């Protein structure tokens, strides 16, 4: 039994199959957490989402909401201008959604609305909080010299889920504040090529959080799709 974490698959169905093949993902024994942004930038967005959903329905994967899932939800709700979504990488997903019947759209909207914003998981030796973007610096809950990550996320989402999901504040907040976080946090959202000094696509590990968006949506900038095996810390890239 192995637990895998991945994020920011961005419509790249082909590489997701390669990744599952590389890790020999076994739905009878393994579990995978997807930390958001299955959609947009790629060429097979809904095909990839449907594939992930089959595993979700079988209880073998869990999808946490990313900003690109929210963009699709907002488009389906009529609250996002298509031109804006296109600018944010949604052109192909938009065309795929426009092919759907109205009942399929309704079903997709309900699914996207119901996605969780975070998940807390425990293994024998560690407890982690998984979420797409991290923290919204305008909504931080601190008490007893601790930064309450779960309450901070709840407050940020209650205030404005869009603002929460597009935030990259965790990478900008002072370390004195980050080190007070009461959970070890795993995020995606910001391609690690922007964070690594050598601009490589290696996952970023810090004392208090890690970033596992290795840039599957930005192959032209050296990005890859990847996953992290929680059991032994091994990283896999395709
Ligand atoms: Mn994102």
Separate helix tally? 9
Placed side by side, the strands forming the largest sheet appear as 3-2-1-11-12
Tell me the structural class: alpha/beta
* C-alpha Rg (nearest Å): 17 Å
CATH class: Alpha Beta
Q: How large a portion of the residues is in β-strands, by DSSP E?
A: 15-25%
Shape designation: globular
CATH architecture tag: 4-Layer Sandwich
Order of helices and strands: EHEHEHHHHEEEEHHHEEEEE
Oligomer: single chain
The main β sheet shows up as: 5 strands, mixed
Give the end-to-end Cα distance, rounded to a whole number of Å.
22 Å
Q: Tell me the domain tally.
A: 1
Low-confidence parts lasting 5 or more residues at pLDDT below 50? none
Mean pLDDT: 97
Characterise this structure:
- This protein has 238 residues and is of the alpha/beta class.
- It has one domain: 4-Layer Sandwich (Purple Acid Phosphatase, chain A, domain 2).
- The chain is 34% helix and 18% strand.
- The protein is built from 9 helices and 12 strands.
- Helix 3 packs across helix 6.
- The two termini are 22 Å apart.
- The model has no long low-confidence stretch (mean pLDDT 97).
- Manganese (II) ion binds next to helix 3.
Please supply descriptive tags for the structure shown above:
238 residues, 9 helices, 5-stranded mixed sheet, globular, Purple Acid Phosphatase, chain A, domain 2, 12 strands, alpha/beta, binds manganese (II) ion
Secondary structure layout:
Layout: E1 3-6, H1 13-22, E2 31-34, H2 45-57, E3 61-63, H3 67-77, H4 82-87, H5 91-98, H6 102-113, E4 118-122, E5 127-131, E6 142-143, E7 146-147, H7 149-159, H8 161-166, H9 175-178, E8 184-187, E9 204-205, E10 209-211, E11 226-229, E12 234-237
Parallel strand pairs: 1-2, 2-3, 5-8, 8-10
Antiparallel strand pairs: 1-11, 4-5, 6-7, 9-10, 11-12
Helix pairs in contact: 3-6
Bound molecules: manganese (II) ion.
Manganese (II) ion (MN) is lined by residues 37, 66-68, 132, 189.
């Amino acid at each position: 039994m192995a637990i895998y974490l991945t994020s920011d698959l961005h419509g790249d169905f082909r590489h997701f199959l390669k990744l599952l093949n590389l890790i020999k993902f076994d739905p009878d024994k393994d579990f995978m957490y997807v930390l958001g942004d299955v959609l947009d930038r790629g060429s097979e967005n809904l095909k990839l989402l449907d594939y992930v959903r089959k595993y979700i329905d079988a209880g073998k994967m869990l999808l946490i909401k990313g900003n690109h899932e929210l963009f699709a939800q907002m488009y389906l709700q009529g609250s996002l201008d298509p031109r804006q979504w296109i600018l944010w990488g949604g052109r192909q997903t938009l065309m795929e959604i426009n092919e759907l019947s109205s009942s399929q759209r309704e079903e997709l909207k309900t699914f996207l609305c119901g996605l969780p914003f975070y998940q807390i998981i425990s293994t024998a030796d560690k407890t982690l909080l998984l979420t797409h973007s991290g923290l919204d610096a305008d909504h931080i809950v601190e008490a007893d010299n601790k930064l309450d990550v779960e309450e901070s996320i709840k407050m940020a989402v209650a205030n404005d889920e869009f603002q929460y999901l597009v935030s990259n504040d965790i990478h900008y907040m002072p370390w004195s504040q980050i080190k007070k976080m009461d959970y070890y946090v795993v995020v995606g959202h910001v391609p690690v090529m922007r964070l690594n000094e050598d601009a490589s696509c290696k996952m970023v590990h810090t004392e208090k959080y890690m970033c596992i968006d290795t840039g599957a949506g930005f192959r032209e900038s050296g990005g890859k799709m990847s996953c992290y095996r929680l059991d032994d810390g091994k990283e896999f890239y395709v």
